[in-house]
Amino acid sequence: MRRSVRTLAFVFFGLALLLAHSMLGRIAPLHPFVPNLLLPVVVYLGVAPNLPLLRGALAAFVLGYLLDLFSGNRMGLETFVCVATFMISRGAGLRLFMRNPGFQAALLFVVALVAGGTTLALRAIFSKPPPFPAGTAGETAVTLVAPALATALVSPLVFAGLQRVDAAIGRRREET
């Protein structure tokens, strides 16, 4: 029961990030530097100690589904990417890299590039072709690199918030 409270706290933190991101987007448009704030949460879930695989995958699924709802993407696109990112980070065992904010930012830059490329490829496979040309290779590169850079820059802040949530749940568990 207590482990599920921890997982729910991570999901609610991700929901709060989505809400803050959507409000910030109304105040100050960030295009093309729009970070994916849930990607650090999913990677953190993947490397979090004492988080069962099924519970973490379910949390990544819910976070991806919420991201699909908030972004207006085809249902299941970001859900798939979030669950795949969780599984890869769980399988890679990246606990050593999560200690330093510099490593966190570098790792999330690479993960955001791969996730953005995966999303772009899935859109190309499953969506109808647009009635206008897709753009140049330079535009595609900016579409992939700019959000990855923004995600990498905000990832240490998101990890710090997740560590605070994790510590607060741990303190609450010790008090009872």
Q: Short description, anyone?
A:
This protein has six helices and no strands. The chain is mostly helical.
Task: Describe what this molecule looks like in 3D.
By secondary structure, the chain is an all-alpha fold. It has a single domain (2-175), classed as Orthogonal Bundle (Arp2/3 complex 21 kDa subunit ARPC3), CATH 1.10.1760. The protein is built from six helices and no strands. The radius of gyration is 16 Å and the shape is globular. It starts with a helix and ends with a helix. The mean pLDDT is 88.
Low-confidence stretches: none
Indicate the radius of gyration in whole angstroms. 16 Å
Overall number of domains = 1
N to C succession of SSEs = HHHHHH
Largest sheet: none
Task: Assign a percent range to the helix content.
Answer: over 70%
**What is the distance, rounded to the nearest whole angstrom, between the alpha carbons of the first and last residues?**
13 Å
- Name the CATH architecture: Orthogonal Bundle
Task: Count every helix, treating DSSP H or I runs of 4 or more residues as helices.
Answer: 6
List keywords for this structure.
single chain, 176 residues, mainly alpha, Arp2/3 complex 21 kDa subunit ARPC3, 77% helix
Give the SSE layout.
Blueprint lengths: L1 H26 L10 H10 L5 H19 L5 H16 L8 H26 L10 H39 L1
Helix pairs in contact: 1-3, 1-6, 2-3, 2-4, 2-6, 3-4, 4-5, 5-6
